Amino acid sequence: MRSVLTALAATLILAPWDAGAQLLAPPPVRPDAMMSALTAEVLGVLRQDHAAGRVTDLTELVEKRVVPAFDFARMTRIALARNWRLASPEQQALLAAQFKTLLVRTYTRTLLEFRDQAIDYRPLRAAAGDTEVTVRSAMRRPGVEPLTIDYDMADGTAGWQVYDVKVAGVSLVLAYRESFAAMVRTSGIDGLIKSLEDKNRQNEPAARTPEAKLAPVFLIYGISRSSQP
Length: 229
Prior knowledge:
globular, 5-stranded antiparallel beta sheet, 8 helices, alpha+beta, 5 strands
């Protein structure tokens, strides 16, 4: 009987602490707030460095702040569609790594190109408990219509992550699907891996010259539909 009373007393004593811990726990981060804060932080660093005449360490900035917010494995699976199942686990890992490099460099060039533009995030339209949402934003540009940038996001074990980006309605991931499928038909999975490796190797000099003139992201996406990876 004494042990029961002791356990009950301990429960009553600890209960207020548990309630207090729940009250002190931070609320879940909304995906739209997350992307707005991420964009503001990254663009803020780019603008400050540009104003001070410094060259931004884009590799460190992107790896530290951008990469954790994107689900590159899922993006690769979507881009390859049914061809993903044709790849061995080793090939899948290589494809994901190379596609990640390609996407990160595209995103980095985009940030540099539009670092001086304002981006507005629209109120999130989602029901409580939704695990997949679309975060919508628009980039204001002088003299032309705003450029829409939408992020498809999913809530998983790593928190909210982006699995597709749509610029002016064009899907970044699906833009590569046709060229990926064509490469697999002609050269197999290994041929696609080599093609991605070659493209990423060719892009290395551009990645080291951040002040070079950069093509707008929607143009890059449009070209990728008809060109080889």
